[in-house]
Amino acid sequence: MNSVAIIGAGITGLTAAFRLKQRGVPVTVYEASGRAGGVIQSIRQNGYLAECGPNSCLETSPKIAELIRDLGLEKRKLYTDPASESRYLVRGGKPIEMPGSAVGFFKTPMFSVGAKSRLFAEPFISKSPADVEETVAQFVKRRLGQEFLDYAINPLVAGVYAGDPARLSVKHAFPKLHALEQKYGSLILGQFLGARERKRRKEVSKQDAKKFSFDEGLQVFTDELAAKIGSDLHLRCAVTHVRQTSEGWVVTSKTEQGETEREHSAVLFAAPAYRFKDINLAAETMVDAQLLTQVAYPPVTSIVMGFRHEDIEHSCSGFGALIPEVEGFNILGVIFS
């Protein structure tokens, strides 16, 4: 059989290629840039290890541990220090430790008495019809109130998507929250009852999942995937045309040496959505690429700074701090490496 074409050598494309090769399926990975890994990039400089993209992974599923084992990276995996599990949220200009239990929640100064009391009404609020498209902001205000939107969900959405809760669909941005309401009629009840299902699936909630990286940063992950793919990974090789034939697909790519055509059994697109418009597609079922250009990719600048411990008042004994928009800072948050 002809190989499967995979367009994009980020974590998704690399993992797909690795798993296909494991099953004896030939692959050809096309990457337009000069390196594999996508947004995952680690830099070692002057004694510091800087992450340009994500700085850790969550072990929410046994599939993640299986992938690391199959790559032979178990000895290089590092878990976070248990003493550094605290997370902070800024309120009134100061970092407040986020509670880790129900008792801690009712003691924390992070939320007002009114906001805490509002939670008791949550199980009695009717669920939205399944086919109604709600934004994250509408969903949270309806179920939890404005204060939770401002000081819990807004910084969370900013930390995950660098996005605006009023512009994100809860069904697609946070599908598990939407599913909890649809199945149990309540987020609080769903959190407790859903724990049994996660246990049966051997999954762990994000709140309880272990965080890990590697001895030289997350790029170890993508570098090893790229090494396993070997010569089937083509860098500086931009796909310009994809044409369907009676027997499969023909992919045209452009390199410094010129254009090349290859026949493939299937094509997997694993690049950013807006890149799809750069490909001339000829297929039986056409896709409107203009729709994909409307998917927003917020620009984010990551600044890495190093300090002496004695020059910092805060202990930095935690994962980092999220900063709600209402606090008026011009940053989304801080990570303590």
Short précis:
The protein has 337 residues and is of the alpha/beta class.
Describe the structure.
Helices cover 30% and strands 21% of the residues. The chain has helices at residues 11-22, 62-71, 102-107, 113-118, 136-143, 146-161, 170-173, 175-184, 187-200, 219-229, 289-293, and strands at residues 4-7, 27-30, 42-45, 48-51, 57-58, 77-79, 87-91, 94-97, 211-214, 233-234, 238-244, 249-255, 258-264, 266-269, 280-282, 320-322, 333-335. The protein has 337 residues and is α/β, with parallel strands linked by helices. The longest helix has 16 residues, at 146-161. It has a four-stranded parallel β-sheet, with helices on one face. A four-stranded mixed β-sheet has the order 8-7-16-17. It is built from eleven helices and 17 strands. The mean pLDDT is 91.
Question: Which helices and strands occur, and which strands form pairs?
Answer:
Layout: E1 4-7, H1 11-22, E2 27-30, E3 42-45, E4 48-51, E5 57-58, H2 62-71, E6 77-79, E7 87-91, E8 94-97, H3 102-107, H4 113-118, H5 136-143, H6 146-161, H7 170-173, H8 175-184, H9 187-200, E9 211-214, H10 219-229, E10 233-234, E11 238-244, E12 249-255, E13 258-264, E14 266-269, E15 280-282, H11 289-293, E16 320-322, E17 333-335
Parallel strand pairs: 1-2, 1-14, 2-10, 7-16, 11-15
Antiparallel strand pairs: 3-4, 5-9, 6-9, 7-8, 11-12, 12-13, 16-17
Helix pairs in contact: 1-10, 5-6, 8-9
